[in-house]
Amino acid sequence: MIIEKKPIKTPLTPIKSSLFDKYQVKVWIKRDDLNHPTVQGNKWHKLKNNLLHAKKQGKDTLITFGGAFSNHIAATAAAAKAEGFQSIGIIRGDELENQPDKWSDTLKTAFNNGMQFKFISRQAYRQKEDASFLSSLQDQHPSAFIIPEGGSNQYAVLGFEDLVNEMNEQCPDWTHIYCAVGTGGTLAGLIHFSQITQTKDNPLNLSSPKRIIGVPVLKQGEYLVSQIQGLLQQSEHIQDKQNHDKINTNWKLLNQYHDGGYAKQSIDGKKFQRNFEKEFSILLDPVYTSKMVYAFFDQLKTGKIPKNSNIILLHTGGLQGRTK
């Protein structure tokens, strides 16, 4: 089951390199890709509270949105199957509707887990957040719980408390967390809970500021700043943090590492991923995590990361999307 228990505690794996020695930093990769076999990485955290709310409302179907390479689509289908929901995916791009032989591994995985697809044009897909569009969709499927693209809403943000507490416990002195960004929900969750400090069960070291670095995997990711800020405001309304002190948590987006855009990967990007996997024996997801790790290495080599930093690279899963 997905929502009745916490995922397994995942390792914070140190990775060693002469490059890290040269720049005097310590680096770990948080293996959250190991937290669940089918609802992997950040998707477990984002979906948990959404599924809880769907059950509380007596819904029997999950509807959500995504492209052909959306990890969220695959994870939602798997979570729905495990929890007894039907699932419907609204898929960007109607050119694939009658060409299942051209579906990505991600779509095939979701389909095999029982998800029904509704392929719509890219123009129509832009209405996915429009109130009238969503109202019409709800009217068509009154027993469905609608989850936004990427699973990113206030419920998703609040699903990251366990993960942040776990990283704080494993590495209290972390200075940087690098995280891939698609729709902003994961980054908002990290920011939200990294700002909660001294509690009885979670004492933190406040001697150094915390920096959370998001790496958007799509072009023109600047709009994500306002989207993340909106998610943070929504989650504040749900969870009262007034009784907690806050540490100095800075966050920013690095928009230059999309490597051609969403679900695209250059020759150099593929080469970097192959070399990393060979050196460290850790598989990366080409759509998200590989771009994030590349951004970290480039930032390090160009002097953007101070000496004596303790860096966590968050592996958000998505390995079902690897090309076989």
What does this structure look like?
It is a single chain. By secondary structure, the chain is of the alpha/beta class. The protein has two domains: 195 residues, Rossmann fold, CATH 3.40.50; 110 residues, Rossmann fold, CATH 3.40.50. The chain has twelve helices and ten strands. The strands form two sheets. A six-stranded mixed beta sheet has the order 1-2-10-7-8-9. Helix 4 links the parallel strand 4 and strand 5. Helix 2 crosses helix 3, helix 3 runs parallel beside helix 4 and helix 9 crosses helix 10. The longest helix has 15 residues. It is globular, with a radius of gyration of 19 Å. The model has no long low-confidence stretch (mean pLDDT 90).
Structural features:
38% helix; 324 residues; four-stranded parallel sheet; 12 helices; 2 domains; 17% strand; Rossmann fold; alpha/beta; six-stranded mixed sheet
